[in-house]
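Progress note, sequence design subtask.
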C-alpha cells in the first residue's frame, strides 16, 4: 500500500447524517455542503463524489484554489460557492466557470463587475453582511452605496445570496450576540430588499445556528461539521435533545463517518524500571509488553497526546506510552499479550464494541474536532466503505 495508515469514509453513515440534517433544515431549504479544509480532513477527492452520489449539488469552499480543485472533481450540475478568499485576477475564472463568490467590500464588487463585463457574463455573487462578527462583510453604514452599486450594475451581477456568519452559535455564552446578529441581518437584508435588490437566497446558518436558532435556516444552510457526523459542541447536542420530545441523553442521530487505521509495526518486552521512548517521560512500572505503531505527529496524531492518547487493538482500548514521535508511537499492550505484528490498530473509529471518537482525542488536548480533522494529511489514502 506504500502508506503507514489509511482512512475509511462510511457512506451509509453519511447518508444517515444527510437524511437527519435535511429533515432538520426543512424541505424548502437548500443544503450546501461545506468542504473547505480538504472536506474537514476527510479528503476532497473522495468526499465530493460520495456527497454527489447522495444527492448533494451545492458545495462551499474557502478559496479560489479550493474551488479549482472541486471544479476538477465535481459533476457538471453541481455548484461551487467561495466563502472567503479570491484574488481580483481569479474573478474572471470564477465568472467564466459560474463559480459564485462572496463579496464583502466595494473593491471586490467593482472588480467583479469589471470581470463580468470582460467575460460578457454575469458574476454570481453572495453579498456578505457584517452583523457583529467583525470578520468580513459590508457595514450597515455602507447600505446606500451598496444598494446603489448592486442596482446600477444589475446587468453584470447575479445576486445569488445575501449572507452572514454567526460568531459562535455553538455556545450559549454567545446567545445575546447571536440574537443581535440575527436582528442586524434581518434589518440589513430587509433594507436591500426594499431598495429593490433581488436575491435568490438568504443564507446565514452553519451547523450550530441551524440546530440552536431555527429562524436562521432561511433559504439555504451551509453545513460543515455536522454532515461529517460531529456536533459543533456538546451544548448544541444538548439543545437538540431538549428541543426534541422523548430524547434520551444517549440519543445521537449523527454518525462519525471517518475511521483512521494503521497496523502494529513491532512488539517488545520492557523490564520494570526501564524508560520507554525519548527521555524519561514514561517509566515501566512493572514488566511490560509494548507495540510500536508507525504513526506520529507528522501524520496528525498530536504530540500533546504523549502519555495520554488511546487506540484500539484486538478490540481493546490501550494507552499511548511515552512521547508521540514524528513518525511513531508506542502503545501499552501488556494486558493483550495475544497482539501480533500486523494487527489492525484503530486510531479513530471502532473495533468490536469499543470506539475512539475524534472528540475523545480532541478533548484530551483541549482541541476542537475541526482542528484535529483538518490536520489529517492529504496523502493518507482514503477509501469509501459502501
Ligand atoms: C462562512 C461559513 N459557513 C459555513 C461554515 C460551516 O460551519 P460548520 O462546520 O460549523 O457547519 C463555515 C465554517 O467555518 C463558514 O466559515
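Output:
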Amino acid at each position: 500500500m506504500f502508506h503507514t495508515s489509511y482512512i475509511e469514509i462510511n457512506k451509509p453513515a453519511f447518508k444517515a447524517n444527510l437524511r437527519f440534517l435535511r429533515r432538520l433544515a426543512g424541505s424548502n431549504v437548500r443544503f450546501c455542503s461545506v468542504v473547505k479544509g480538504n472536506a474537514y480532513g476527510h479528503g476532497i477527492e473522495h468526499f465530493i463524489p460520495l456527497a454527489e452520489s447522495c444527492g448533494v449539488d451545492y458545495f462551499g469552499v474557502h478559496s479560489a484554489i479550493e474551488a479549482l480543485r472541486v471544479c476538477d472533481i465535481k459533476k457538471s450540475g453541481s455548484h461551487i460557492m467561495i466563502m472567503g478568499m479570491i484574488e481580483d485576477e481569479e474573478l474572471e475564472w470564477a465568472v467564466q466557470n459560474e463559480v459564485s463568490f462572496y463579496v464583502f467590500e466595494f473593491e471586490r464588487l467593482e472588480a467583479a463587475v469589471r470581470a463580468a463585463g470582460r467575460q460578457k457574463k454575469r458574476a454570481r455573487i453572495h453579498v456578505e453582511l457584517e452583523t457583529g462578527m467583525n470578520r468580513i462583510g459590508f457595514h450597515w453604514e455602507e447600505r446606500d452605496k451598496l444598494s446603489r452599486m448592486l442596482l446600477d450594475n444589475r446587468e453584470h451581477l447575479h445576486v445569488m445570496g445575501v449572507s452572514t456568519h454567526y460568531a459562535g452559535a455553538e455556545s450559549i455564552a454567545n446567545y445575546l450576540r447571536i440574537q443581535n446578529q440575527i436582528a442586524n441581518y434581518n434589518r440589513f437584508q430587509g433594507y436591500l430588499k426594499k431598495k429593490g435588490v433581488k436575491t435568490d437566497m438568504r443564507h446565514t446558518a452553519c451547523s450550530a445556528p441551524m440546530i440552536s436558532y431555527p429562524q436562521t435556516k432561511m433559504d439555504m444552510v451551509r453545513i460543515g461539521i455536522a454532515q461529517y457526523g460531529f456536533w459543533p459542541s456538546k451544548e448544541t447536542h444538548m439543545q437538540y435533545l431538549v428541543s426534541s420530545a422523548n430524547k434520551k441523553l444517549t440519543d445521537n442521530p449523527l454518525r462519525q463517518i471517518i475511521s483512521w487505521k494503521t497496523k502494529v509495526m513491532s512488539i517488545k518486552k520492557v523490564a520494570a524500571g526501564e524508560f520507554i521512548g525519548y527521555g524519561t517521560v514514561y517509566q515501566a512500572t512493572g514488566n511490560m509488553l509494548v507495540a510500536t505503531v508507525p504513526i506520529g505527529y507528522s501524520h496528525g496524531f498530536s504530540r500533546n497526546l504523549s502519555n495520554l492518547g488511546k487506540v484500539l487493538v484486538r478490540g481493546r482500548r490501550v494507552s499511548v506510552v511515552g512521547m508521540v514521535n514524528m513518525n511513531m508511537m508506542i502503545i501499552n499492550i501488556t494486558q493483550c499479550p495475544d497482539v501480533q505484528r500486523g494487527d489492525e490498530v484503530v486510531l479513530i473509529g471502532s473495533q468490536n464494541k469499543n470506539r475512539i471518537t475524534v472528540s475523545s482525542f480532541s478533548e484530551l488536548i483541549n482541541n476542537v474536532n475541526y482542528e484535529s480533522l483538518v490536520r489529517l494529511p492529504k496523502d493518507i489514502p482514503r477509501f469509501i466503505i459502501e
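The chain has two domains: 11-243, 258-356. Work on this subtask will continue into the next period as scheduled.
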